[in-house]
Amino acid sequence: MRLVKEIEAELIAEAERRGYILNPDREILEGIIKGLAINEEKLGYWSCPCRIASGDRLADFDIICPCEYCDPDLEEFGRCYCALYVTQDYIDAGMPADPIPERRPESRQNRGAEIDTAEGTQNTEDSADTVDGEIKVWRCQVCGYLCARTEAPRICPICRAKQERFEEFRLAIH
Ligand code: SF4
User: Fold this and answer.
1) 2.50.20.10, 3.30.2350.10, 3.30.70.250, 2.20.28.10: which CATH number matches 115-169?
2) Cβ distance 143 to 153 under 8 Å?
3) Are the beta carbons of 63 and 119 closer than 8 angstroms?
4) For residue 162, what are the contacts with CB-CB under 8 A and spacing of at least 6?
5) Ligand 1 atom 1, closest CA
């Protein structure tokens, strides 16, 4: 798996090209980058760390970072869904942790299982738990953030809710 600093260098270049600002909160930023690194390793592309990927590049095309929804979310909310990219206005407003709505159409969601997700902790080697064609998924009961891994994140990367606010469910893998 590639190092955070390698991916961060690419993100910095991408941000400069597009006029984006990377989240200045180091913990959040590194958590998201680790999620991208894991998805890159498992899937071969930067599937959004905050969404369920199908594992099919074509089907996931809209959520390959920077996703199709990044620009409208930056414009409307000052941040992308994961808060990897933010605007100066959002920073000046104190970077509110309120979750933003999922712009990805429901018809495109939940078509597979993401391997892992961004999270500002060290347990990024944690792998998804698959049994009998189903995968264990954790849902943040505060903001709805989803991730597929053995244990719930210690802190929600979107709304910062604590681990006990996550609930477990099973998702069939197609
Ligand atoms: S929400 Fe942010 S981190 Fe996720 S794919 Fe879009 S731009 Fe990348």
Assistant:
1) 2.20.28.10
2) no
3) no
4) 154, 155, 156
5) 81
Residue with tokens 């990219």, as numbered in its chain: 85
46: nearest Cα among 72, 22, 20, 64? 64
Furthest CA-CA distance within the chain? 48
Give the atom of ligand 1 at the shortest distance from the alpha carbon of 118: 3
Which tens digits make up the pLDDT trace of 108-140?
Answer: 876 654 444 444 332 333 445 566 666 778 888
Q: Is 157 in the pocket of ligand 1 (CB under 6 A)?
A: no
Distance CA 150, CA 98 (A): 26
Residue type, 2: R
pTM of the model: 0.69
